Amino acid sequence: MTPTYQGRPFSLFRNLNAKIASIPMILTALVIFVGGTAWTVFYSFTNSKLLPRASFVGFDQYERLWATPRWLVAVENLAIYGVCTLVFSLAIGFLLAALMDQKIRFENTFRTIFLYPFALSFIVTGLVWQWILNPNFGIQQVVRNLGWESFTFDPLYNADIVIYGILIAGLWQGTGLIMCLMLAGLRGIDGDIWKAARVDGIPTWKTYVFIVIPMMRPVLVTTLVIIASGIVKVYDLVVAQTSGGPGIASEVPAKYVYNYMFLAQNLGQGFAASTMMLLSVVIVIVPWAYLEFGRRRRHG
Question: Domain tally for the chain?
Answer without folding.
Answer: 2
